[in-house]
């Protein structure tokens, strides 16, 4: 069975200490027929202009190419009423503008937000979702909000990241599964096999 390729994007640790570990936890062991490749928006993008003035940026161009090759995208960002971290916001600008050439047009994209605070009632849409919607991406939502993310993840002695909260893990894995299913349909791939072993 052909794998569906999902690209996981997060801000660098200085801007978001939980995004990359969360994606790495989701990337292993991986669902049957699904491959999640994790990448962070380099800090250099935080220093680049958030206004699209230059025609290209080599780092953003490389990630834009990765997004073009992926069947779907998963983005993690802190849960906030404000814009996402500067590096991620700038990357999203390059990925979504100009709209005519954006690799995200019609592509299934899931948004996961994290918070160290207890669960609260989130806004209907976060700024990252608004940016993606405007760019013509297919949002696979509603987004999954992970409260107390500092208690949900744990780093293993071998450097791997695991979930310490089974409930949060199941909610996240279902969101990834729905995104992968939409990516399969969008890419014309056959449905995946039963994904339940992924949850064991």
TrEMBL record:
SUPFAM superfamilies: Flavoproteins. Pfam families: FMN_red. Residues 54-118 form the NADPH-dependent FMN reductase-like domain. InterPro entries: Flavoprotein-like_sf, FMN_Rdtase-like_dom. It comes from the Bacteria. This is NADPH-dependent FMN reductase-like domain-containing protein.
């Amino acid at each position: 069975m052909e794998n569906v390729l999902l690209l996981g994007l997060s801000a660098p640790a200085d801007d978001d200490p939980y995004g990359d570990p969360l994606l790495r936890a989701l990337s292993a062991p991986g669902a049957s027929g699904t491959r999640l490749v994790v990448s962070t928006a380099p800090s250099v993008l935080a220093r680049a202009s958030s206004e699209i003035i230059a025609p290209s940026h080599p780092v953003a161009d490389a990630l834009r190419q990765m997004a073009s090759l992926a069947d779907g995208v998963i983005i993690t960002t802190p849960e906030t009423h404000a814009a996402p971290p500067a590096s991620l916001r700038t990357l999203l600008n390059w990925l979504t503008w100009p709209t005519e050439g954006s690799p995200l047009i019609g592509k299934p994209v899931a948004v996961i937000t994290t918070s160290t605070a207890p669960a609260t009632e989130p806004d209907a849409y976060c700024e990252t979702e608004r940016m993606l919607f405007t760019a013509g991406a297919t949002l696979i939502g509603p987004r999954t909000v992970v409260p107390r993310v500092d208690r949900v993840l744990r780093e293993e002695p071998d450097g791997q990241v695991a979930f310490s909260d089974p409930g949060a893990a199941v909610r996240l894995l279902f969101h990834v599964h729905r995104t992968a299913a939409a990516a399969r349909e969008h890419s014309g791939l056959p449905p995946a096999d039963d994904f339940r072993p992924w949850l064991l």
